């Protein structure tokens, strides 16, 4: 989704700027032709890179420079200052880089440098890698295998009929109608064949045989592997509502789900969202953007209080109410019939359709049947290796020993899944990288972004800084005096 800027900012860097205008550790945005270029002075060197992140175009000048890298302020993608390589997801594409020269106290930006070439860093090269899952972790692993110049066979199997998509977008801009569908795939269709990735869609895996090192397809066929990555993600909890026509109650996980909701919204006036979860509320925001009347029904007293605490829960509620969302909290839906819902307290709400966002379950059945060690998810070590040494697991299904909290955790975030896919890829090639990323997620509600760093399943103290009501604040979740 990166776009070229119509009006380049700052000075023309090809004409040179005074060295003194870029202090040590400083950043400055100028342009080269039509392109915005960021100059970074770090240690004794000066780097010139594209000024916007290749994920969603975040302004890198507001990011952090750490140890030869630059971190995007929006969703924390990490790029190498020297090569522009997207070292850590959620960005995958490198930043464009330019040659920099210094002459007579001035900095000049010269020609654009070639894209970094895949570097062969593998220690061992298994002949064939099979990835079960065409989502965040599966895609990130496949992309990283080729980036590391792995020359062996890569087969990606997915029971989805769509190629890997930008799943977070399915409840946000795409559902709201402000992002076209061509922004949703993570890569164009041709990318997979062009990079020798054998992506097989609509293929369901029925079993894994770790002794024979084979996956067994639901149609009985088998595929052998030398290394296997399990990245089967999670599936939405389905609600059974008495009286509900199945065609009028939706859940949201796939592109097909999002398309179905959009199609239904086009002929509807009122929608019911069941569950005040992140996904439920993002759906509520998107349906409001489409002009629908939206009612949210959820059992808790405040939206997302359990995850974010009462202060943020109130802010989120106020934010949605400002936009016209009606909340029915401390309540549940006891029946949904054509055209209306009945709540536990007897309230009757008119609604043409419902979207349930009441949680997900990790898809661990394959791992369980294969006899892999489980621990409320698939248990992996810090290298993301399961109890079967040739099988790795990543993403929503994986529970890993988190060195920051000292606990084993499983989280359902896009950035964690993509980074785990990247680490698993490195480890399937023998690079021995521990997964040490701090968990991070974001959620978008209208023009407000909520960014969450770390992982606090419980806390005994909440410290609020700034002004949450003015949508500019920070909440620290502390347990025993520590911020996890
Ligand atoms: C609508 C929506 C919005 C979200 N927004 C955000 C957000 O804003 N921020 C954030 O941090 N996170 C967000 N998330 C969560 C994030 O998308 C997930 O954490 C992430 O996708 C998990 O990646 P994964 O690779 O583990 O699983 P997935 O991306 O779900 O991929 C799993 C893949 O496995 C395949 N599969 C499963 N079982 C089988 C089988 N037996 N045979 C063949 N294929 C199989 C599936 O078809 C799929 O291709 C959102 C999720 C949804 C649904
Ligand atoms: S815009 Fe940079 S990480 Fe998302």
Give the secondary structure arrangement, pairings included:
Layout: E1 17-18, E2 27-32, E3 35-42, E4 45-50, E5 64-66, E6 69-71, E7 78-80, E8 86-88, E9 97-103, E10 106-112, E11 128-132, H1 136-147, E12 153-157, H2 173-176, H3 190-194, E13 197-200, E14 205-209, E15 214-217, E16 222-224, E17 227-230, E18 234-236, E19 249-250, H4 255-265, E20 270-274, H5 278-289, E21 293-298, H6 305-308, H7 310-322, E22 326-329, E23 333-337, E24 340-343, E25 348-350, E26 353-356, E27 360-362, H8 365-369, E28 378-379, E29 391-393, E30 398-402, E31 407-409, H9 414-428, E32 440-445, E33 448-453, E34 461-467, E35 472-479, E36 482-483
Parallel strand pairs: 11-12, 11-17, 12-13, 17-29, 19-26, 20-21, 20-26, 21-22, 28-30
Antiparallel strand pairs: 1-10, 2-3, 3-4, 4-9, 5-6, 6-7, 7-8, 9-10, 14-15, 15-16, 18-27, 23-24, 24-25, 30-31, 32-33, 34-35, 35-36
Helix pairs in contact: 1-9
Bound molecules: flavin-adenine dinucleotide (FAD) and FE2/S2 (inorganic) cluster.
What ligands does this structure carry? flavin-adenine dinucleotide, FE2/S2 (inorganic) cluster
| Strand order across the largest sheet | 1-10-9-4-3-2
> What fraction of residues sit in β-strands?
25-35%
Average predicted local confidence, pLDDT: 93
Number of helices: 9
Please mark out the parts with pLDDT under 50 across 5 or more consecutive residues, or reply none: 1-5
Total strands? 36
Q: Main beta sheet: strand number and arrangement?
A: 6 strands, antiparallel
Helix content: 10-25%
Structural class, from secondary structure content? Answer: alpha/beta
The backbone outline, from C-alpha atoms, is globular
Distance between the termini: 33 Å
Rg calc: 24 Å
């Amino acid at each position: 989704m990166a776009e070229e800027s119509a009006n380049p900012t700052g000075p023309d860097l090809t004409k040179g700027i005074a060295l003194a205008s870029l202090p040590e550790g400083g950043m400055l945005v100028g342009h080269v032709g039509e392109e915005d270029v960021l100059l970074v002075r770090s240690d004794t060197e000066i780097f010139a890179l594209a000024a916007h992140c290749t994920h969603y175009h975040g302004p890198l000048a507001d990011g952090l420079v750490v140890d030869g890298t630059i971190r995007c302020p929006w969703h924390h993608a990490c790029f190498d200052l020297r090569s522009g390589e997207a070292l850590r997801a959620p960005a995958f594409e490198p930043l464009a880089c330019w040659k920099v020269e210094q002459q007579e106290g001035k900095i000049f930006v010269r020609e654009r440098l070639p894209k970094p070439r895949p570097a062969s860093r593998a220690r061992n090269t298994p002949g064939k890698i099979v990835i079960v899952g065409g989502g965040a972790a599966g895609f990130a692993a496949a992309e990283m295998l080729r980036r590391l110049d792995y020359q062996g066979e890569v087969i990606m199997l997915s029971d989805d009929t769509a190629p890997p998509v930008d799943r977070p977008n399915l409840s946000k801009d795409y559902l709201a109608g402000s992002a076209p569908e061509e922004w949703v795939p993570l890569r164009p269709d041709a990318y997979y064949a062009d990079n020798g990735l054998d992506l097989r869609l609509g293929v369901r895996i029925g079993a894994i045989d770790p002794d024979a090192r084979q996956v067994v397809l639901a149609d009985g066929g088998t595929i052998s592997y030398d290394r296997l990555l399990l990245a089967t993600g999670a599936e939405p909890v389905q609600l059974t509502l008495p009286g509900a026509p199945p065609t009028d109650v939706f859940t949201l996980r796939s592109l097909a789900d999002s398309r179905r909701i959009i199609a239904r919204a086009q002929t509807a006036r009122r929608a019911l969202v069941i569950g005040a979860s992140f996904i439920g509320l993002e759906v509520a925001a998107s349906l409001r953007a489409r002009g629908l009347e939206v009612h949210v029904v959820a059992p808790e007293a405040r939206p997302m209080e359990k995850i974010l605490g009462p202060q943020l829960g109130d802010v989120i509620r106020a934010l949605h109410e400002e936009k016209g969302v009606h909340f029915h909290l401390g309540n549940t839906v006891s029946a949904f019939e054509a055209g209306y819902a009945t709540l536990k307290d007897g309230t009757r709400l008119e609604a043409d359709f419902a979207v349930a966002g009441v949680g997900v379950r990790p898809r661990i059945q394959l791992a369980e049947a294969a006899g892999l060690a489980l621990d409320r998810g698939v248990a992996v070590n810090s290298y993301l290796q399961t109890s079967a040494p040739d099988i790795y697991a990543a993403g929503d299904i994986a529970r890993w020993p988190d060195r920051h909290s000292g606990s084993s955790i499983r989280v359902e975030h896009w950035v964690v899944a993509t980074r785990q896919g990247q680490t698993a890829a490195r480890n399937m090639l023998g690079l021995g990288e521990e997964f040490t990323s701090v968990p991070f997620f974001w959620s978008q509600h209208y023009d407000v972004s909520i960014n969450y760093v770390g992982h606090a399943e419980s806390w005994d103290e909440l410290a609020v800084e700034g002004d949450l009501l003015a949508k500019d604040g920070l909440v620290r979740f502390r347990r025993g005096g520590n911020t996890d």
